[in-house]
Amino acid sequence: MYQIVLIIHVAIAVALISLVLLQQGKGASMGAAFGAGASQTVFGSQGSASFLMKITAILAASFFVTSLSLGYLAASMYRQMQTAVTPVSLPTTSVVETMVLVPEPEIEQMVESVSTETGDA
């Protein structure tokens, strides 16, 4: 389910970017004052602005919905993974307790044996 929503999300994002790039800016209508407005008659008297704006609004709302859906699906997948993990039991004695329980003469013997092996005297 997550992959399907993700593919739809990416397709909507690409379509939304394309539509935004196709739209003309606010200053682009100045050409109509000088006789260049005849090229906009394909989409009606107002040009393609209202048609493209409606499609852009629909795609933006769809992008918002898929974003929320992806967030919800990711959170539910995370919760499922957290419940599937079994807790690991820790040992009852810690390293500090083990070091405290070793008698001092044995520690000195270990240090001496390590120093003689490495050549430190």
Can you describe what's shown?
The chain has helices spanning 2-22, 49-84, 95-101, 104-118. It is mostly helical. The protein has a domain at 2-25 and 36-84. The radius of gyration is 35 Å and the shape is elongated. The two termini are 67 Å apart.
Helix and strand arrangement:
Elements: H1 2-22, H2 49-84, H3 95-101, H4 104-118
Counting helices, strands and paired strands, the structural category is mainly alpha
Helical stretch tally? 4
Q: Please tell me how large the radius of gyration is.
A: 35 Å
The mean pLDDT is 76
Overall spatial form: elongated
Count every beta strand, where a strand is a DSSP E run of 2 or more residues.
0
The helix fraction, in percent, is 55-70%
Order of helices and strands, N to C? Answer: HHHH
Percent strand: under 5%
Query: What separation lies between the terminal Cα atoms?
Result: 67 Å
Q: The biggest beta sheet, please? A: none
Detail the poorly predicted runs: none
Write out key terms for the chains shown.
mainly alpha
How do you describe this structure in short?
The protein is mainly alpha-helical. It has a domain at 2-25 and 36-84.
